[in-house]
């Protein structure tokens, strides 16, 4: 465990800023938005050839936005994110900018519309540097299923040059933030796609309550689970981003009409008397000792801050993974039916309609996506619907009930984010089922729809980051941010990936 | 007429029919997008990003379409389900942009109901409604624009449809026709569907089977997308005949989907069993379950227009029209409105439930079923763009009632009104009467003078009449009327003639 203490608040390089400190620096006119943006564009230029976190870079657009930000700041009209350079997961439709979902099938699709989440960020003055890599259609736990190639985790193991995976599906977002290529990024989480890569890359990410962020313009994987959220270096940065991203959207019938709280204000809120639950079912056999130790340590940090730590039970946890894969893939098989080569995206020309469909989808989708479409189609097909889909729906209700019961007793649940740290590209399990186990701790909260965050707690014995997960009750984002902040302070995770300077401070 | 039978070699067969009617909801926007639901337009003119299933687009339910479905349910005396849900029906087709149709499968918004029908011979029947659910329409493939390619028009994609499913209660082509006409009448009264089958805003899938009377149901076949009442009736006949032949030849009717060719007057298979779809339904995750309140339903119910049944009963009770007349007058709401406006004037709605003055109510009914409809037919107009307005007709009838003109002159005046109305110069009855000097003569002296002259000029006939040839009375009336250019009050002519001849 490497704990270091921040000693200075003035980074020497612009890319070393946190989002919050950059915001302050811009307002104090310590530097201009254009300087800040250029610093990140340079960093992308220098480092992204290796990391491969960007699918599409938009430097011209970014500089233009930065100049506008500088004008706004000069006029005293700065908004929450004015001049802040961000990366956007390439699952969000961005007006006039190619949007691929990391799939060949979308070809050069350039939407004439903007997703609500990215529009909210733009409305708050954010500067978009480009579109970030991901697992194809957000399906994967490694970011190795992208049609644009895998993303490399900026972290290295002690004494090894092996390329590590950044996690998935928001692996490009996590790696870009960790490598200092942007101050924050959007992610989407279906079964852990924000939290797991955040853990693997040593950054922070929040999957908010289902319905908190609009899904309009976000390319669908599994509609009843997908939820956008922020990824950044610190919890404060995530809170700032989430506040901007969230909100009711009449264009999404599942978005919730409830005011957005000031998440940033939850940082530093006292957690005295808060009840923290430790679910016994998350102690899986074979969990690395480092992770178990970190988990206990985190509990003790919370206790030291005045919280009460209690053992709880989430009895249906062991059914979460199969339930998730049935529910998510059923929806995915349907959501991906629209990629038929008829209206947009790539088309494989063939003499008949059926042949055109088959060839387009065969050539356009990657292996993992095809596997999931087949599974999803199978679980919905007549003769199997009752055995799989209907049963999964029922189990999902039981899992939700587990959480509702638990939250009658506790305010926040503490678990590890993933059963291990990042593994190497060539260690990727060949068995897809083994691969799916990466999501074992994140999936239950997704099925329940409750908010959860991941933040870095420390390093494992090989020197790669380990994540801690805090799960809250419906719309309990402020609780997990308050508790998370205590953990963040105590962990004082300031270690940076090899090859780039300190994140929080020079020391 | 439930005794419709097909006589085959092995005896009589009964036909069993159930209908699934797709009725396009009258609304400004589509079911899940803000795009216009207007018929026609250039291909792909009325298509939103949602209708085209662009990546990341989400459906948002149109509340007015829901209200229309509930109104229709109420009009069908059906159970309104406060909880309903949308499901996805997954299949690939070029004109189905999402790769699935959003429909209601397990939990429809409207449950069981009833439609009372009347056959042309006056026999009453009824058809049970199984359910009504909301769903989105698909687009249209255009196969005739290019020698090699097909094009897709998504104007209809996402338009709200109500699928109204009947019980297999129909036993003859006539009953099917009567049911469809009645359903269309109800929908039009409610203003929930324009019932325009030519534009495809109402079309039917027809399920047909045959059986020996008293037997259980045999295998049914579904004839898809039949778009006129007449074709539905013909299709049932053709299909029932085909099935009887198959059974009687010792074969088995296979459950299949058919199309009706109205030129050849036969049904033919649309797709084979091998293509049978596994639709893979599941709850639509982009929409929350639809929950409505009883209060909202009650509000819609209170604001419901008067339906044909009620209107008929009221016209018979309050206006003294015959069942036949009430049937004709309520066939379409605008006709009933025209009739009531003729009787009461423009504020007819405020007289609802009051007994109408019998003389004008009767006169108006006679005129509408007679000269008025004849004039509409002749001029190719409809009650809503009639060359003679209800108020103009009302004035004409009032001239008859106050004896300004007699019925015969009134017909002449009416024809002039029609002519001028068609020419775009509507003229009031009074103006025409004045202009042509058609006022009825009720001056006893004047009539007596003419009678005297007629009797004097026909002394021989008077003698014949007096010797018992009663029929000649009409001759004297006619001569008097002719002498007075038809303007004499016929009753007075009659009375005075009787006096003079006695």
Structural class of chain A: alpha/beta
Oligomer: heterodimer
Which range does the strand content of chain A fall in?
5-15%
Count of separate structural domains of chain B: 3
- Sheet with most strands: strand arrangement of chain A: 1-3-2-4-6-5-10-11-9-7-8
- Number of alpha- plus pi-helical segments of chain B: 15
How many domain regions of chain A? 1
Q: Give the CA-based shape of chain B.
A: elongated
The gross shape of chain A turns out to be globular
How many β strands of chain A by DSSP?
11
One letter per element, helices H and strands E, the order of chain A comes to HHEHEHEHEHEEHEHEHHHHEHHEEH
Uncertain ranges of chain A: 1-8, 501-507
Alpha carbon gyration radius of chain B: 30 Å
* Count of DSSP H/I helices of chain A: 15
Mean pLDDT score of chain A: 94
CATH topology category name of chain A = Amidase signature (AS) enzymes
| Gap between N and C termini of chain B | 56 Å
Major beta sheet of chain A, specifics?
Answer: 11 strands, mixed
The residue fraction in helices of chain A comes out at 25-40%
What would you call the structural class of chain B?
A: alpha+beta
